[in-house]
Amino acid sequence: MKVALISDIHDNDGNLVQALSLAESAGCTHLICLGDMVHSATFRTLRRSWAFGIDLVFGNNERERTLFRRMAEDFSNTTLHGDTGEVELGGRRIFFTHLPEHAQNALAAGCFDAVFFGHTHQVFNKTFGNTLVANPGEITGRGGHPSFGIYHTGDNTVSIHEL
Questions:
Q1: Which of 7, 10, 44, 151 is deepest in the core (most CB within 10 A)?
Q2: What is the pTM of this model?
Q3: Tens of pLDDT along 121-151?
């Protein structure tokens, strides 16, 4: 199974739509969003542009959390987990969050195959023991290199793709 990983959109809907199109073309059938969409219009763009299931968490810049919760309830195949989330996809136990410190705690727990985080806007992709820890970078492109990840559940790896 291939899972798209996105983070730190910061209302850059153009880059978001491009990343989602590339992820779908690559065969991704699920999406994990690691936060910082920022406004509800970006959440609407995300849901309109992605036909498959979405699991997402809040970032530290979500301005309309109550509205986001209501919207997630109205969208099919969409689960808003709060500040951290856990799912099983493709036989893998996955933890995801926006903040690196939550990711560190999940790694220390030692019960996940993969741990994903955002916030830093920097790509990170390493394995510690049997646990993959990754940050797909940023959709917004503030640092000049907008990117997203594709998680391959079969071999528990992430490939990073620049826009």
A1: 7
A2: 0.97
A3: 999 999 999 999 999 999 999 888 999 999 9
